[in-house]
Amino acid sequence: MHNQRPILCIIPPHMLREISERGTDLQQEKARATMAVSSQIRIQRTSAALTVHMGAAGTPDKHRNIYDAKQGSQLPGTLVRKEGDPPSADLAVNEAYDGSGATYDLFKEIYGRNSIDGNGMSLDSTVHYQKGYDNAFWNGQQMVYGDGDEDLPPSQRLFNRFTAALDVIAHELTHGVTQFEANLAYSFQSGALNESMSDVFGSLVKQRLRSQTAAEADWIIGEGLFTANVNGVGIRSMKAPGTAYNDPILGKDPQPAHMRDYVNTIEDSGGVHINSGIPNHAFYIASIELGGFAWEKAGMIWYKTLADKFNQNSSFQDAANLTVETARELFGSGSIEEKAVIKGWQEVGIIVGAPAGDGCLTAMMRAIGLAK
Amino acid sequence: MTKIDFVQSGGFMGRTIILSLDLDDMPPHQAQTFNLLLDQADFFRLEVDPAKPPVPDSFTYTITVTTDERSHTIHVSDTTAPEQLRPLLLALSARARIR
User: Is A226 helix (H, G, I), strand (E, B) or coil?
Assistant: First the structure.
């Protein structure tokens, strides 16, 4: 774990207070909202002080627990399947079990990481969270999955159960890995990087299970989450951000693929699920340049950077500089790997080697209308 | 006059959903249900710790209730919502999801 820069990227509270008191009406409103968002980046390390379960013989090993919330909100719920148990009659239970297992396997077998915390932490998942819950999340300790629109008439349903997509499961588990490593603050650029890491390893778990090369993979995140009522192939596209869906009810996929289209917003914790399209696409380009299985080289570079170089406050520019640095360390200066990573970032509008500067601060200032 | 403004943001998809309800314009039995849920939540006295950050991919919710006499806004997430508020949250989410 490396956190070289402990200072978090936030507009100083006193500045926000000034704006909230003296700015225009719109600026005041946005500054107050930003103060709320800023508090989100104080992610509590204490939440990472989790119970670590070891295998039966005390050996750090794959150890999965699947719980059923029975449509309530109490976590973790009732334990319904644990490591080594036979498959359940409940499809969502088995999907959560198999998906968390496949994710554990990628991190263990390819990157040598023993579970979420690197120390054999149990992989806990809860399915059937609430009723009509169109979502999945990582609560700091475990994964949680809703059943989508199961409570609506079939003709009105937009979402299937969230365990239906393997990359969603791997995405949530990767939030745990990030929490124990860089602990990227969940707002603005560092938050979008946090999201991107989850999409990258989410997609890699799926690609590895399907034995697909970078060129063969679909690079869609959340394939299978939409019902047939939605005009879309998934929630996000790493190959072509902004094209995953275009639907009369859901609207159009808002992801940019280039810095010139970066979205300055205070919604969604500063657009963490929107601007993640930019680093997602950089990873896709680098993977295509390298060819072969993306989890082997590009995935290794991204994983090592997440584990050893990012800090809570890393920006997109940091990500570009540091992934290239990692590529150089792993494969050599002037290597095709280094060049592929440089090209990836270049194609999304980030020139490797530029100073990271105050990109995060600038993004926040733009979001509240104080910078252009 | 009682108005409820509800904003759901974040989630795996990062989509923002907005719902505005004017209880005076609703069928009486529906308005009564929302009034009961507001009472159950003790909404106007509900204080939520804003320092608690939302966790990755959780939904965040902003609810503002305005009457002739007063207005109150709260910000919560899936993991910070107090139990007494959850029935109201579920009812608002369900209504926002009706296409």
Answer: strand
Residue A100 structure tokens: 């968390």
Cα–Cα dist B51/A39, whole Å: 5
User: Locate tokens 């601060």: which residue?
Assistant: A361
Domain A64-164 = CATH 3.10.170.10: yes
Contact B4, B23 (CB under 8 A): yes
Helices A336-347 and A277-290, interaxial angle, to 10°?
A: 150
Give CA–CA dist A187/B55, Å, rounded: 11
* CA B64/CA B66 separation, integer angstroms: 6
How is domain A13-27+183-367 classified at the architecture level of CATH? Orthogonal Bundle (1.10)
Are A152 and A90 within 8 A, CB to CB?
no
Give the pLDDT confidence of A80-109 residue by residue, as tens digits.
999 999 999 999 999 999 999 999 999 999
DSSP class of residue A221 equals: E
Hey, where are the domains in chain B? 2-97
| Candidate list A95, A172, A195, A325, residue with the active-site label | A172
Nearest to A277 by CA among A302, A301, A254: A254
Q: How close, in Å, is residue A93 to chain B by CA atoms?
A: 20
B56/A172 touch (CB, cutoff 8 Å), yes or no? yes
With b meaning 16 or more CB within 10 Å and e meaning fewer, what string describes A147-170?
bbbbebeeeebbbbbbbbbbbbbb
* Sequence letter at residue A104: Y
Judge whether A130 is closer than 8 Å to chain B, CB to CB: yes
Give the pairing of strands A143-145 and A236-237.
Answer: unpaired
pLDDT in tens, A36-66: 433 333 333 333 333 334 444 444 589 999 9
- Taking only residues 297 to 316 of chain A, the set having a beta carbon closer than 8 angstroms to any beta carbon of chain B reads none
Q: Do the beta carbons of residue A163 and residue A101 sit within 8 Å? A: no
Spans of all domains in chain A: 13-27+183-367, 64-164
Q: Is the pLDDT at A25 greater than 60, yes or no?
A: no
Letter for the amino acid at B30? Answer: Q
Q: Are A296 and A306 in contact (CB under 8 A)?
A: no
Total beta-carbon pairs less than 8 A apart between chain A and chain B:
98
d(CA A275, CA A200): 14
